[in-house]
Amino acid sequence: MKSLDEANIYITGGSSGIGLAFARLAASKGANIAIIARDKKKLKQAKKEICSLCIKSSQKVEAYSVDVCDPKKLYKAAPAMVKKSGNPDILVCAAGVGLSNYFEKITNDNFKKIMDINVFGIWYTLKAFYPYLKNRNTHCVLLSSLAGLIGVYTYSAYGTSKFAVFGLADCLRSEFKENGINLSVICPPEVDTPLLQEELKTIPAKAKRIKKITGVLSADTIAQSIMKAILKKKFMIVPGFMSKTTWFLHRLLNGYGTRLLTDIVIKL
Q: In angstroms, rounded to a whole number, what is the distance separating the alpha carbons of residues 99 and 108?
């Protein structure tokens, strides 16, 4: 794929955060956009924002209120979405929630919610749209995290979900490629989104110190990374200089350096 112009792009979690940032960027490049989320009010506002950035009158922008954690409703809704918005050329799975807290304070319900949205939500979405993506030289993008590559203090729930997303992407890459679907996984550090604001309600002070090491990126920066992954058919992108450096050192030292640094920081 050489450009996003006239591509039909479906984005879960498209009403806010990274999903909305990429929807805006893609619209400004001439793409047709279909955003999927639960909140109808946010969807309406997001659609308005996306439409304002369209560069051609022929571009289509649609918003669908569907819960990606409900497979029955999602599977039922997918054919109707495709009939209205066209066969997906690009599918971006950006729906997700965050949580940072001590293991003993994370309830079973908290953990289940994280896994339902961050992991099963992606699984169900891929299942719903796979028949429309297959054998058409299409592209899927999954949102993991740097916390899906490196274990992070107080991220036992969120990190587990993002490790699962990266593992899913790694397992599916060859299988999807064999069936005409390119697959990418994006692993950003902290991103300034509503997810981050929600996480700040519970994050321990020690965890904040650790997270400062890799810094905070904007949702627009991650949107650019998604576009790069699609246009250059890159499997994995770790956005941000400090994130790349941290990931490189983690691999180089077989995890010893990042674990030692974490132990030092939490003792301060």
A: 13
Q: Which CATH architecture has domain 8-204+217-241?
A: 3-Layer(aba) Sandwich (3.40)
In the residue annotation, 162 being an active-site residue is answered as yes
221-238 pLDDT tens trace: 999 999 999 999 999 999
Give dist(CA 144, CA 53) in Å, integer: 27
CB within 8 Å of 267: residues ≥ 6 apart:
none
Q: What is the DSSP string of 65-86?
A: E--TT-HHHHHHHHHHHHHHH-
pLDDT tens per residue, range 27-52: 999 999 999 999 999 999 999 999 99
DSSP 106: S
Residue with tokens 């132990």: 263
- Which one is catalytic: 42, 47, 162, 211? 162
Token pair 């569907």: residue: 66
Domain ranges of the chain: 8-204+217-241
Q: What is the pLDDT of residues 164-190, one digit of tens each?
A: 999 999 999 999 999 999 999 999 998
| Cα gap 61→14, rounded to integer Å | 12
**The pTM is what?**
0.94
Written as six digits, the tokens of 231 are 């246009």
Of the residues 16, 132, 158, 211, only one is catalytic, namely 158
Is 158 a residue of the active site?
yes
194: Cα separation from own chain's centroid: 13
In this prediction, residue 159 carries a pLDDT of 96
Q: Which of 15, 16, 100, 144 is catalytic?
A: 144
